Amino acid sequence: MTSDRAKRIIDILQQGQPDEQVTVQGWVRTKRESKGFSFMELNDGSFMANLQVVINADLPDYEVVIKKINTGASVEVVGTLVTSQGKGQRIELRAASITVFGEADPETYPLQKKRHSFEFLRSIGHLRARTNTLSAVFRVRNACAAAIHQFFQERGFLWIHAPIITANDCEGAGELFTVTSLDLQKLPQTADQKVDFTQDFFGKKAYLTVSGQLQAEVMAMAFRDVYTFGPTFRAENSNTSRHLAEFWMVEPEMAFCNLQGNMDLAEDFLKYVFKYVLDHCQADMEFFQERIDKTVLATAENIINNQFERLTYTEAIAILQKADKTFEFPVNWGLDLQSEHERYLAEEVFKKPVILTNYPVEIKAFYMRLDEDEKTVAAMDVLAPNIGEIIGGSQREERLDVLERRIIQQGMDPADLWWYLDLRRYGTVPHAGFGLGFERLVQFMTGMGNIRDVIPFPRFPENADF
Ligand code: 4AD
Ligand code: MG
């Protein structure tokens, strides 16, 4: 193997010139044998298209090499670029030498050239990134992540790292995974027969975080504009195409900001990420358009070019009640909207993303700012076609007395949140933020039907393989 890193296939396909000497490395996608020569399609994950390699029979050890380069084998090819005579590619590589690093037995290698179901591919999670669709997904996922950092960094937001282990349930929904180092066979007990978590690693009950928001609020009170981007965990037992037990969340938090400013940021943010991906992942997006969902490019243009619809929860309920459609969950004021309602609004009524605001206080988390009427809170959810809720956020309750009252009303103990309440005691300001479900964004962008296929190693009920 050469000590210089070989050229990436994307660079060769886009910039390579005839007569250029190159070294490439990758995995064989297909091989076709002909009289006197063979073709091999090589992929290194850098690009949707393969590099076509022409192997003439005068290559040293031709017969041996050809036997070894089956689908899935890893190789290094040294050769010369030539203008391709065939259609489908501008340039191809004429091999002068081929090193086979690892063979792949055609009898057992699961990814032979044919269409595989996504369900089957999930069962080979360690190999599926070598397929066209999954590799396109992970390139787009990477571009989304890069766009997100670029968006916030350009605007002076500080990237903060929220803890993974926490003692708080930010959303108050009780969907927590407990983190413990206690011996499960010999749990220490308190006098009243409960598990004695004072003897646990952290001296109290601890969990995997459901959201980095509370810590983002701490940091926003020092840096004004911050964001988190990290994994979050929810033990909700929902086997849907939109839920994961481990997912990544992006949570900006802004001091001196109200709900209006929060909605403006969310809209600018989504537009920016879509534009970035269209600009950086053209071939992948065309692939999704052709093979996965014929509307992805139009959807992206629609996001970039149109204003999102903004209306209150109360207005949305009125629209849903007038709808010429029967919902599984009947609509009345106070209902926690289900994905069928959210999708109806985004897909059928407005045909674009919708931002709903001012939800009933009873169905939202304790930290959301109470509106004047005390019936609603300054919440906002961004609802996307095909996905439903993609972003959830709010203006936060910055008034100490109101916040304490809300915490108690929700059956929580203010003492557990003493530090969070301190933020309201010392230099409190109106502030707001939101959380974007990163996988839902990637799903929305690519048109992929199942959220389990937009994260490399999905975690969901009864599954933690790979
Ligand atoms: O609406 P959620 O629960 O909001 C929060 O966690 C707030 N603390 C955010 C904030 O204001 N800083 O979750 C935010 C988003 C949802 O809109 C959804 O896109 C995504 O996270 N989400 C999930 N994605 C995949 N699997 C799950 N189980 C998800 N639960 C929420
Ligand atoms: Mg939500």
Task: Give structural notes.
It contains 13 helices and 16 strands. The protein starts with 8 loop residues before the first helix and ends in a 20-residue tail after the last helix. The mean pLDDT is 96. The chain is α+β, with helices and mostly antiparallel strands. The longest helix is centred in the first third of the chain and has 23 residues, at 132-154. The strands form 3 sheets. Strands 6-10-11-16-15-14-13-12 form an 8-stranded mixed beta sheet. Strands 1-2-3-5-4 form a 5-stranded mixed β-barrel. Strands 7-9-8 form a 3-stranded antiparallel beta sheet, with no helix packed on it. The structure holds 4-amino-1,4-dioxobutan-2-aminium adenosine-5'-monophosphate and magnesium ion (MG). Magnesium ion binds next to strand 15. Residues 381, 389, 392 line the site of magnesium ion (MG).
